[in-house]
Amino acid sequence: MITERQFDFAKKLLERRFFEVTNKIEDAEAGIVDIHARSTRKGDKRTLLLRIVEDTATVVGVEILRSCIKARDEGGFAQAILIGGERYTYAARREAKLKDIELLHRRFLSIDLFMHELVPEHTIIAEDEVKELEAKYGILRMQLPKIKAGDPAAKAIGARPGDVVQIIRRSETAGTHKVYRICVP
Question: Of 147, 83, 160, 152, which Cα lies nearest the Cα of 113?
Fold first, then answer.
């Protein structure tokens, strides 16, 4: 999931001290693990906070969400993802949307969607590539076919409404075939 979002915490980054796994939560019983990662894109210095709630609780409330927001803000992270139990309370979902925290269920991690042979490669393309695409084909961004933000592949790569997703499919006749989609809510 992290590598599909173009972040990395691989061994080579571990050697450079870009990777940290810490238990920095006031309540040691909470079973919360923070994972820090950096962007793999050239010139991109964004960082990601991935907070995993290992507690057996099935409902994640606003208190755990607020601790994630605090950790993101204090650590200077550009993005944060909270992975928790079976469901989130209404208040937690509402506040996460306002504070730009992505919420994922623990079971989302158990399946690597892109390992299946029928699922093509999905990537979010940079803004300058979108401009080139618009100029090359003489189209506007909103004229592209759409992909829902709730699509499992879009969720896995972290696509948000307005992002343009490049999908590279294998083809017996053409070898590879690139298609583009605009992410919509």
Answer: 152
User: Is residue 159 exposed (0-12), middle (13-18) or buried (19+ Cβ within 10 Å)?
Assistant: buried
Supply the pLDDT for residue 138: 93
The closest of 117, 128, 183 to 156, measured between CA atoms, is: 183
**What's the pTM value of the predicted model, to 2 decimals?**
0.62
User: What distance in Å separates the CA atoms of residue 44 and residue 66, rounded to the nearest whole number?
Assistant: 27
Residue 46, φ and ψ in degrees, nearest 5: -65, 150
Q: Which class does domain 3-110 fall in?
A: alpha beta
Kind and range of the H or E element at 38? strand 32-39
**Section 93-114 average pLDDT:** 80
Query: CB under 8 Å to 162, separation ≥6 — which residues?
Result: 182, 183
- Say yes or no to pLDDT of 11 above 60: no
- Whole-number Å distance between alpha carbons of 33 and 52: 5
* CATH architecture for residues 115-184: Alpha-Beta Complex (3.90)
Q: Give phi and psi for 138, each to the nearest 5.
A: 65, 40
Q: Place 8 in a pLDDT band, splitting at 50, 70 and 90.
A: low
The domains of the chain are located at: 3-110, 115-184
